[in-house]
Write a structure and sequence with these properties.
By secondary structure, the chain is mainly alpha-helical. It is built from 13 helices and two strands; from the N terminus they run αααααααααααββαα.
Length: 319
């Protein structure tokens, strides 16, 4: 796996970990913040970050500890407690394994390098350090991240419903799209959100796909959530590469169309975000009509407040 693969997903998941360094949160607590089960969160995190959530948190705490030892007047004991180690002895053993030296000797060395090896390049950022522009959150991150984040929330809400509720005809059906698409039940709405991403991911990657959609057993909220996570990793990888090359106006041939058509990358991304936003809002209204207590409206500003994936640093507490 290349480091840039799943960059947006790495940012989103790593932010949840970095914001938990001063808490006693367990993996299941972090999973809830990502609106995933513990198993889903652990599997996806390891797949895209090449590190488990627990391992990343331990590494970031040790990087922060190394910075504190070299750049602050905190005692070694206070540094150990700040890193949430139960004892000075446990901290010293972990620090020596990571940095190949004791905390006391590291302090005397004043080594300016406090980052441990990591293939995902997510590290503790010292206060006052310049933020790399490549890690900033741009409009692509906001739109793509919000769409994935809100869709996951909708699927989590839908997983609390019965089969009858998922397939109950909606009292009001809004048909605004210029192509034939069935949106008469909540299940169909959610399926169209996921299927749209799958179709365009296949078109962008040149992969083959059954345009009739997956079998019925792949249309439960839990199965759709797994499909979403899978297609998001590939779709974000492709579009992040386009973003990094400033190639939004470049074109590609969609061989899934009959006959094949040519589109721009930017046009396809805008298309996915626009029509999935419509579907998400209709699905949100359907959930509320079915009695589900939902929060928010899928606003990108809600996404920023809840996830803040651009914040890849951890603030040091100074004595």
């Amino acid at each position: 796996m290349h480091n840039e693969d799943g960059h947006g997903t790495v940012d989103r998941l790593s932010a949840i970990v970095t914001n938990s360094l001063d808490t006693q949160a367990k993996t299941e607590d972090l999973a809830r913040l990502a609106y995933q089960s513990r198993t889903q969160f652990h599997r996806l995190f390891r797949a895209v970050a090449e590190e488990t959530p627990g391992a990343m948190r331990r590494r970031l705490r040790l990087e922060r500890s190394a910075y504190q030892l070299a750049h602050t007047g905190m005692s070694v004991t206070d540094v150990a407690l700040d890193a949430n180690f139960g004892s000075l002895e446990a901290f010293s053993r972990a620090f020596r394994r990571a940095f190949r030296t004791s905390p006391s000797l590291y302090r005397r060395m004043r080594d300016p390098h406090f980052h441990l090896p990591s293939s995902n390049k997510v590290h503790f950022l010292a206060p006052g350090s310049p933020t790399k522009r490549g890690g900033d959150m741009d409009l692509f991150d906001r739109f793509a991240g919000n769409d994935s984040w809100h869709t996951r929330r909708l699927l989590e809400y839908a997983s609390t419903l019965t089969e009858e509720q998922l397939d109950r005809p909606l009292p009001t059906v809004v048909e605004l799209l210029p192509w034939r698409e069935s949106n008469k039940t909540l299940r169909q709405l959610l399926e169209n959100i996921i299927f749209t991403k799958e179709v365009w991911t296949a078109a962008l990657s040149g992969a083959e796909m059954d345009v009739n959609g997956p079998p019925q057993e792949q249309r439960s909220p839990q199965a759709m959530l797994q499909r979403l996570e899978k297609t998001d990793v590939e779709l974000h990888r492709i579009l992040c590469d386009v973003r990094n090359r400033s190639a939004w106006d470049d074109t590609f041939v969609d061989a899934l169309c009959e006959p094949a058509e040519t589109f721009t990358f930017g046009g396809v991304f805008a298309h996915i975000m626009t029509f999935n936003a419509h579907r998400r809002l209709v699905a949100l209204d359907a959930l509320r009509q079915l009695g589900v207590q939902t929060e928010g409206f899928g606003d990108p500003m809600e996404y920023e407040e809840s996830v803040a994936p651009w914040e890849r640093h951890v603030t040091v507490k100074t004595p």
